[in-house]
């Protein structure tokens, strides 16, 4: 198999050198060049024809978002963002994923060399997954950074809901920040309760939850330990914590813990799905969306065996068909659907 050709774009000479060395040490990757800013990168893309681009989110002469938007309109290709673990870095990275970037890695604020070295395996894996990703041309105007919205108050106790005895569980990874947004945008404000796990760095989780809340008719919130799970609400775990569902009499509650990573992830989809299988069983409906690896596949199988309805996103609409594909191979998925049909089918299966 031909080696994956990578172009590294970063204004830091140290980061360019480190990424070049880390990626180049893998026999399946060839770093064909590096660029210090987007204008230089544009010329090197034309000349070197890379398979994957790594792109710093904040760049001189042209910011990373503007460059990415132009790239995805005129010459769409797999892009892995390299972002800082800051609040602004999280917001910009989520915007980059909305523009079509496949995935991202974070660089530490201090001791960049050691920090990136510790994540060498993750960076290599994400670049390899990006090379197989399905990238589409950007057809819509870019949505710039949105101002933070005032948190909405819960009105669940005052509203009349169509159903209170169903629970929807969703897991995702690479490409999932946008896939989850698409699903939640299509949910009505009185939808059955939703619990979600998305592989994302701890420092990014709050910005991700706030963004989803701005886009969803449901109330999207960071789950608190012991919090009651209510219809009309979607719950995600705090950064770097597992989310489980436990039964408390006739209702469900969130359980948050910092147990060891599962399938190399915390939060892990398998952790969430197994708890839903045990606590909700046939009252649950579950879906795996786009993502790298196989986290969630075995948990989805346990859900199906417990009587839950199960489905996965199809390959054509997935950025990376790793997790959904693994679930299909295990026989965990009853249905395989394109992303734009998943929200409606989840509601049908939940009887909403």
UniProtKB/TrEMBL annotation:
One of its GO terms (molecular function) is protein-glutamine glutaminase activity. It is found in: Cytoplasm. One of its GO terms (biological process) is chemotaxis. Keywords: Chemotaxis, Cytoplasm, Hydrolase, Phosphoprotein. It is an enzyme of class 3 (hydrolase). The keyword Translocase does not apply. PROSITE patterns: CHEB (PS50122), RESPONSE_REGULATORY (PS50110). Residues 161-352 form the CheB-type methylesterase domain. The active site is at residues 173, 199, 295. InterPro entries: CheB-like, CheB_C, CheY-like_superfamily, Sig_transdc_resp-reg_Me-estase, Sig_transdc_resp-reg_receiver. Phosphorylated by CheA. Phosphorylation of the N-terminal regulatory domain activates the methylesterase activity. Residues 5-122 form the Response regulatory domain. It catalyses: L-glutaminyl-[protein] + H2O = L-glutamyl-[protein] + NH4(+); [protein]-L-glutamate 5-O-methyl ester + H2O = L-glutamyl-[protein] + methanol + H(+). Signal peptide: none annotated. Involved in chemotaxis. Part of a chemotaxis signal transduction system that modulates chemotaxis in response to various stimuli. Catalyzes the demethylation of specific methylglutamate residues introduced into the chemoreceptors (methyl-accepting chemotaxis proteins or MCP) by CheR. Also mediates the irreversible deamidation of specific glutamine residues to glutamic acid. Belongs to the CheB family. This is Protein-glutamate methylesterase/protein-glutamine glutaminase. It comes from Pseudoxanthomonas suwonensis. The lineage of its organism: Bacteria, Pseudomonadati, Pseudomonadota, Gammaproteobacteria, Lysobacterales.
């Amino acid at each position: 198999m031909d080696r994956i050709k990578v172009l590294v774009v970063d204004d830091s000479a140290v980061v360019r050198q480190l990424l070049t060395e880390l990626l180049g040490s893998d026999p399946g990757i060839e770093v064909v060049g590096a660029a210090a800013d987007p204008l230089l990168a544009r010329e090197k893309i034309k000349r070197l024809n890379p398979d994957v681009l790594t792109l710093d989110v904040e760049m001189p002469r042209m910011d990373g978002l503007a460059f990415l938007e132009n790239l995805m309109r005129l010459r769409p290709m797999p892009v892995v963002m390299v972002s800082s673990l800051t609040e602004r870095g999280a917001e910009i990275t989520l915007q980059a994923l909305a523009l079509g970037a496949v995935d991202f890695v974070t660089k530490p604020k201090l001791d960049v060399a050691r920090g990136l070295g510790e994540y060498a395996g993750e960076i290599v894996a994400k670049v390899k997954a990006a090379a197989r990703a399905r990238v589409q041309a950007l057809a819509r105007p870019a949505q710039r950074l949105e101002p933070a919205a005032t948190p909405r108050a819960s009105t669940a106790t005052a509203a009349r809901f169509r159903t209170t005895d169903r629970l929807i569980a969703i897991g995702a990874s690479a490409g999932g920040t946008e896939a989850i947004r698409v699903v939640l945008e299509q949910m009505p404000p009185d939808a059955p309760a939703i619990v979600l796990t998305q592989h994302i760095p701890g420092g990014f989780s709050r910005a991700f939850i706030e963004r989803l809340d701005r886009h969803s008719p449901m109330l999207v919130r960071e789950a608190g330990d012991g919090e009651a799970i209510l219809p009309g609400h979607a719950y995600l775990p705090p950064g770097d914590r597992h989310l489980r569902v436990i039964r408390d009499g006739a209702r469900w509650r969130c359980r948050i813990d910092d147990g060891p990573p599962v399938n190399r992830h915390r939060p892990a989809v398998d952790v969430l799905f197994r708890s839903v299988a045990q606590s909700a069983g046939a009252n649950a409906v579950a879906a795996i969306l786009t993502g790298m690896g196989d986290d969630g596949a075995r948990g989805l199988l346990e859900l199906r065996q417990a009587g839950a309805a199960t489905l996965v996103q199809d390959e054509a609409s997935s950025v990376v068909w790793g997790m959904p594909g693994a679930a299909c191979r295990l026989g965990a998925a009853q249905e395989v659907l394109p992303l734009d049909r998943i929200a409606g089918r989840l509601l049908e299966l939940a009887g909403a």
